[in-house]
């Protein structure tokens, strides 16, 4: 009898959020929808871009798309590095890859809100509307801050977000004071895979998450060769690597077993032999490798990127790079 | 109605004997078995998935009773359209391959040969990578337009003042397809990674977003194209012996070939526009049908369609259920499952051919 009572109580508790929720209108990239004022069961259609910032805000994420490693284990990309979370130590369920979602697994979680983005298959998003309102938030257009603000608004966590953002802004202002004239310091952003097959170069306005946001907020100057690029991110030629020279170059790498700092430096050498001699920033110890969490789109990522820039650039002597006129 | 039945064949004649069909029994039996397998697999597909639904609940839902709104959604909105779309797409790709092999008299012909898959791929990847805001609901139409444009380009470029030749058509198709594929690869390599990943998912041939609108599109076009194809099957049979013989037998070779190519492109373009390029089905299914049961062209087309439907339905079921919630695109499974089966069929048929 008591078991039946517990079962009924549990089912009622699960059903209550869906039954008694107040709703409001919200306009996302894919239209205007009625969403719960305080969502109780959210499914994120991307781990790094959606699940991590939502979890950080304290939103109730019950499911998320994720990645699968070579051993078949699922993980939240950047989760352990940035927030110390993964499927194993949270109540978040794996619902497929962001480009291979299992709609039935999502339905089984009985979400009251689903959040995706421009990477979500429009056909799948249409199917998911039958389960719960599915909002596509265009993080590429909004940028990292406005995307997080949108998540905070959707989940009723605006107060929490604005407080953390204000603290970040205060820290940016403090660091700008330490730096003196950051507009006179040029900073390049590169990304290297451990295989060393290709190198990506990002504009400060590019989609490199927290670090690009921090570099922009601090007001660093962009090297002319990067400003001249036609797209925000470019697969760059090894023969032109000297054009990327700047006062400082931040070389990012994704945290994965084979992507140690030593391996990444070796990958640069494989990609462009003699690269370090070709770049004054590298010759003078002003090429700085930064790990994955600094480009995660979270407040923790912003704070970490800011701290790393402070410790690597502020109040240290450096050899300026004289860009050719 | 039935008269003079030769051994191992069923002969059907219309009352005025204007139409006579001589059907090999083995092929009929195989067709019946394939149809039964299709029904069984459809039932299995409706009963299998990540959302726990008991077979009884599936049956009640199919009878129109609402067990729960969630189960209604799972069965009617997710599993049923997906199952039907998989079968229809498989049949269409297989038929496209069979027709192309007949029209070009090349046993390696399939939809990718005439640029249909590559045209669709380039159109969709271009929109996804360069204009992501426009690539949503318009995707099937964009894919269809890409397929048709490339097929027309191959057709017109291979046409000379002396008319078209099958070899010229094939070579032009291979060349243009390779050129288009290189542009697609460049877009995937240099485009933003998330957009490229989204495009790659579609390129792998995934049926996970199939809706009733897709099913209606696929079924409607199959209802138009399949009868048209069967009407040309007699001329197609004659064309198997070469154009000169076919002309001698009174077959309208030029008209039939143009019609065949149009139907083949139509089948592949519609199927590709809905689920993306599905490799190997158009190549494997016609060969497998031929080896399972030699038959006349009409029955061969039906066998091929049934085999294609079975292959893609199986691939989709395995891809979505075997490692759930990991979703493996049907296109990958058709390659992994289809190619070994194809090789086994070829090996098993070798002694029979030698004798």
TrEMBL record, chain A:
Coiled-coil intervals in this record? Answer: none
| Superkingdom, natural source | Bacteria
Q: Name the GO terms of the biological process aspect.
A: iron coordination entity transport
Q: Which family does it belong to?
A: Belongs to the bacterial solute-binding protein 8 family.
Task: Supply the InterPro entries for this chain.
Answer: ABC_transptr_periplasmic_BD, Bact_iron-sidero_bind
Name of the featured protein: Fe/B12 periplasmic-binding domain-containing protein
Which Gene3D superfamilies has this protein been placed in?
A: Nitrogenase molybdenum iron protein domain
Where does the record say this protein resides?
Answer: Cell envelope
What does the entry list under GO cellular component?
Answer: outer membrane-bounded periplasmic space
Q: Which residues form the signal peptide?
A: 1-20
Which UniProt keywords are given for this protein, alphabetically ordered? Answer: Ion transport, Iron, Iron transport, Signal, Transport
Q: Which organism is it from?
A: Devosia elaeis
- Extract the PANTHER family matched here: IRON III DICITRATE-BINDING PERIPLASMIC PROTEIN, IRON(III) DICITRATE-BINDING PERIPLASMIC PROTEIN
UniProtKB/TrEMBL annotation, chain B:
Q: Is-annotated flag, keyword NADP?
A: no
Q: Which InterPro entries does the record match to this protein?
A: ABC_BtuC-like, ABC_transptr_permease_BtuC
GO biological process, any: siderophore-iron import into cell
Keywords from UniProt, A to Z, are: Cell membrane, Membrane, Transmembrane, Transmembrane helix, Transport
- Location (main, coarse): membrane
Family, similarity comment: Belongs to the binding-protein-dependent transport system permease family. FecCD subfamily.
Q: What is this protein called?
A: Ferrichrome ABC transporter permease
What's the source species for this entry?
Answer: Devosia elaeis
């Amino acid at each position: 009898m008591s078991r039946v009572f517990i079962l009924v109580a549990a089912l009622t508790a699960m059903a209550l959020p869906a039954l008694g929720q107040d709703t409001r209108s919200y306009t996302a990239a894919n239209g205007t929808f009625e969403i719960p004022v305080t969502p109780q069961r959210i499914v994120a259609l991307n781990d790094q871009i959606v699940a991590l910032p939502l979890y950080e805000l304290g939103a109730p994420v019950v499911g998320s798309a994720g990645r699968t490693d070579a051993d078949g284990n699922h993980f939240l990309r950047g989760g352990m590095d940035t927030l110390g979370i993964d499927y194993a130590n949270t109540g978040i369920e794996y619902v497929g890859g962001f480009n291979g979602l299992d709609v039935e697994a999502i339905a089984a979680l009985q979400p009251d809100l689903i959040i995706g983005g421009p990477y979500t298959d429009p056909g799948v998003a249409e199917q998911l509307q039958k389960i719960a309102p599915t909002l596509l938030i265009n993080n590429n257009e909004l940028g990292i801050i406005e995307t997080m603000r949108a998540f905070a608004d959707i989940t009723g966590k605006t107060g929490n977000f604005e407080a953390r953002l204000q603290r970040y802004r205060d820290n940016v202002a403090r660091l700008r004071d330490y730096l003196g004239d950051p507009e006179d310091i040029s900073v390049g952003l590169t990304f290297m895979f451990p295989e060393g097959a290709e190198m990506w170069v990002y504009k400060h306005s590019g989609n490199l998450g927290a670090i690009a946001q921090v570099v922009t907020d601090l007001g660093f100057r962009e090297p002319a060769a990067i400003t001249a690029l036609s797209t925000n991110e470019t697969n760059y030629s090894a023969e032109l690597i000297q054009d990327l020279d700047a006062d400082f170059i931040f070389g990012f790498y994704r945290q994965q077993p084979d992507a140690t700092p030593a391996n990444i430096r070796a990958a640069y050498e494989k990609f462009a032999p003699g690269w370090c001699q070709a770049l004054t920033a590298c010759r003078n110890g002003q090429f700085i490798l930064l790990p994955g969490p600094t480009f995660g789109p979270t407040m923790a990522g912003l704070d970490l990127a800011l701290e790393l820039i402070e410790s690597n650039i502020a109040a240290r002597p450096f050899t300026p790079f004289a860009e050719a006129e | 109605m039935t008269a003079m039945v030769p051994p191992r064949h069923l002969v059907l004649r219309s009352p005025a004997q204007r139409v006579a069909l001589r059907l090999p029994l083995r092929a009929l039996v195989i067709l019946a078995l394939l149809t039964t397998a299709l029904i069984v697999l459809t039932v299995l597909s409706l009963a299998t998935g990540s959302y726990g639904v008991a077979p009884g609940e599936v049956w009640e839902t199919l009878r129109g009773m609402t067990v729960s709104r969630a189960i209604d959604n799972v069965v009617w909105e997710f599993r049923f359209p997906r199952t039907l779309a998989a079968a229809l797409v498989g049949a269409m790709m297989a038929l496209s391959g069979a027709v192309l092999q007949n029209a070009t008299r090349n046993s390696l012909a399939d939809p990718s040969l005439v640029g249909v898959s590559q045209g669709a791929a380039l159109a969709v990847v271009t929109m996804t990578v360069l204009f992501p805001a426009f690539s949503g609901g318009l995707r099937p139409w964009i894919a269809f337009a890409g397929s048709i444009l490339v097929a027309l380009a191959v057709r017109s470029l291979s046409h000379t003042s002396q008319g078209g030749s099958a070899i010229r058509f094939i070579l032009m198709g291979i060349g243009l397809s390779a050129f288009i594929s290189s542009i697609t690869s460049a877009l995937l390599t240099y485009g933003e990674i998330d957009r490229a990943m989204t495009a790659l998912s579609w390129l792998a041939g995934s049926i996970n977003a199939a809706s009733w609108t897709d099913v209606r599109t696929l079924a409607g076009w199959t209802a138009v194209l399949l009868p048209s194809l069967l009407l040309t099957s007699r001329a197609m049979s004659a064309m198997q012996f070469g154009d000169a013989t076919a002309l001698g037998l009174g077959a309208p070779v030029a008209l039939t070939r143009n019609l065949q190519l149009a139907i083949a492109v139509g089948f592949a373009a519609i199927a590709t526009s809905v689920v993306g390029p599905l490799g190997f089905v158009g190549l494997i299914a016609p060969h497998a049908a031929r080896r399972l049961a030699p038959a006349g062209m009409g029955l061969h087309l039906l066998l091929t369609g049934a085999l294609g439907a079975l292959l893609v339905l199986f691939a989709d079921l395995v891809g979505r259920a075997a490692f759930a919630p990991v979703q493996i695109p049907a296109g990958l499974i058709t390659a992994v499952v289809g190619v070994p089966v194809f090789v086994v069929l070829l090996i098993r048929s070798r002694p029979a051919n030698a004798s």
